[in-house]
Amino acid sequence: MKMRTCLLAFLGLIVIGLSCVPVARAETTGESPATESPAESKKPAAFADRGAQTCIKCHDQSPVSDILKTPHVVKGDGRTPFGQDNHDCETCHGASPEHIHSHPASGEKKASTAVVFKGPNAASVEKRNEMCTNCHENGMRMNWRGSQHQSNDVACVDCHTVHVTKDPVLVKQKQPEKCFTCHAEQRAQSFMYSHHPVREGKVSCGDCHSVHGSPGPKLMKEFTVNQTCYNCHAEKRGPFMWEHQPVREDCISCHTPHGSTEARLMSERMNFMCSACHSGSTSANSGAAFGGHGALSGSQKNIAISSGLANQRTCLNCHSQVHGSNSANGAYFLR
Prior knowledge:
Helix content is about 30%, strand content about 0%.
């Protein structure tokens, strides 16, 4: 009985000693027990607790509320801002406790969100694009870094509109007007007599150009101009038995793609265009287009051309297969 009493008393002393350790440590080290100050207890959380529900209390009208009708708000898709981490709007606009909890005086505006995409208080282009490329980094955007648009400080929201059901820049009929806001020269060319049917809504800028970056020139979708043109003009690709060398080199040698005052998007009048290469050797005013003798290649170079026909008509009246011919008698692209 005495043994049990002593054992219980000993265990009680151990428990009392352990409970006093933190107090003793605080007294010996001079540290005060960890307590939350009133200011810290009232400090707002980094992100809104209820996500988009907090934002909708104020932003419940169009166009801001239209984001709820877009693919960005699909909760079941982990790739979307609303399906990732329950931060919803703040996934793109950044944690904004100052904005959410600010109560400005009458006539004053609330504090801005962490990332503002448009307006005088917009964040830097680099910061805005960073929010977009966090998700939109692969696929067609993989060449964005170092591209002409990125190097010229073009922001994603300069072209794209997020808070709409259908982004206008993704609609073929509406896309050119967005591009024309910067590319005024191409806008003027689209009004010319001969042009690709861009304004008619049959061709868009994105059919030829990869606006998010490309390994080819002028943001072309393919590695070369010709490869891009062949996507639509496959009949000009060849190979042909008789090749026209300028055609193989570059379509822009003869054509201007955005618009021309000449038929078939030619850079200049047909006869002048052809005479630039097929001119006589005696003077600058010789050749088929100027009433002289055309200089042909090979064993036929001394054959005279009836310049009267060339002056009254175009070269294509005879040389109809100017892009190349597979005829055995097609050496001069006559058939």
